[in-house]
Amino acid sequence: MKFTITRATFIKSLNDVSRAISTKTTIPILTNLKLDLTDTALILTGSDADISIESKIDATSETNDLQVQSTGSITLPARFFSEIVKRMPEKTMTVDVQDNFQTVITSGQSEFKINGLDANNYPRLPEIAAENPLTVPADVLRQLIAQTVIAVSTQETRPILTGVHIQIQNGQLIAVATDSHRLAQRVLELPAAAGADYDVIIPGKSLIELGRTLTDEIETVEIRFADNQVLFIAGNTLFYSRLLEGNYPDTSRLIPTSSTTTIEFDAPTLLSAIGRASLLSHESANNVVRLNLNADQQTATIYGNSPDVGNVEEALQFTNLTGDNLEISFNPDYMKDALQGVGQTTIELAFTAPLRPFTLVPSEDKTHFIQLITPVRTFS
């Protein structure tokens, strides 16, 4: 096996597949990068058994400058090989696999020799048929991931909550995540998938890595489901993830259908104010800020406090405060994550009681993206 390639092209694919390679694995060969070379393409594969990423470099593309001298397969120590490739002196490099899987990497006057392993011992990726595949715009999928993974749990005590619950039915995709303290739900309209019916849980870690591979050059992503796997096809990259087993809790009943107090804010303005209030709350043991809404006097005030440092009070700019007067406390980091998810828009906060979860939705679209935050009980 021998080939020459432009390093920049190779490094781009290498960076993608490296997201799936872990130094901590019970299968030693998975610390390696797999290379498959045919007459038409070079395929790089990385896996940690939970996530597998495959990236193809087309030999017919002039920009790749992939020159195939002899075909074959090899797995190479991912960490060392990556460092070698990134430090090579010239724009191109040559990889030559010799006897006993010894691999020679040359670029200019630099030459490295590293030991590889037989690619036949590398676990095979599943073949997922294209039965009822879904196609989603890449930018929309990237946004959906960013808006939901913020609410997945990082605690392994309830493994099911470390994933995002995806339901596809009646031409809609509903993605929900919750860590029991907050919830994020995003709905996509998929008219072309009217006949599709899926109910799966995708690990949040997998979706975070997928989001990082969805660059601006990728326009659409094809999604395929199997019994315990999901496959995302984005350009020349195939992203596999295992699915979590179990039943996700029914989150629909958690979202309030009515409210007693509502208020609208400009999201970036509120985000800045909460950032200021949290400067002091982060120095406190409970990390809580307090919001006081007075509909009678049409005022909204946020408070942050640290017994050791001091306190902050700020009158907030808002529009359209209606309903009952209310004072509520919450974790400011949850609110900052939620506001970053909606971006540059106006948002509506809807409350039912000081100790009941409240919702946050974009004012112009209150059905396709909703976030819920549980308040914090404080004793003053």
How would you characterize the overall build of this protein?
InterPro entries: DNA_clamp_sf, DNA_polIII_beta, DNA_polIII_beta_C, DNA_polIII_beta_cen, DNA_polIII_beta_N. Keywords: Cytoplasm, DNA replication, DNA-binding, DNA-directed DNA polymerase, Nucleotidyltransferase, Transferase. With about 375 residues, the protein is an alpha+beta fold. The protein has three domains: about 1-120, DNA Polymerase III, Chain A, domain 2; about 135-240, Roll (DNA Polymerase III, Chain A, domain 2), CATH 3.10.150; about 255-375, Box (Proliferating Cell Nuclear Antigen). Helix content is about 20%, strand content about 40%. It is built from six helices and 26 strands. The strands form four sheets. A nine-stranded antiparallel sheet has the order 14-11-12-13-26-25-24-18-22. It is elongated. The termini are far apart. The model has no long low-confidence stretch (mean pLDDT about 95).
Q: What portion of the residues fall into strands of 2 or more residues?
A: 35-45%
- State the helix count: 6
How many distinct domains?
3
At the fourth level of CATH, the homologous superfamily of the largest domain is DNA Polymerase III, subunit A, domain 2
> Quaternary state, please?
single chain
The first-to-last residue Cα distance is 72 Å
- Structural class based on helices, strands and sheet pairing: alpha+beta
Largest sheet: 9 strands, antiparallel
How many beta strands in the DSSP annotation? 26
**Residue share in helices?**
10-25%
What overall geometry do the principal axes of the alpha carbons give? elongated
Average of per-residue pLDDT values: 93
Fill in the CATH topology of the largest domain. Answer: DNA Polymerase III, Chain A, domain 2
CATH class membership of the largest domain: Alpha Beta
CATH architecture of the largest domain: Roll
Uncertain residue ranges? none
Cα-based radius of gyration, to the nearest Å: 25 Å
Q: Strand order of the main beta sheet, please?
A: 14-11-12-13-26-25-24-18-22
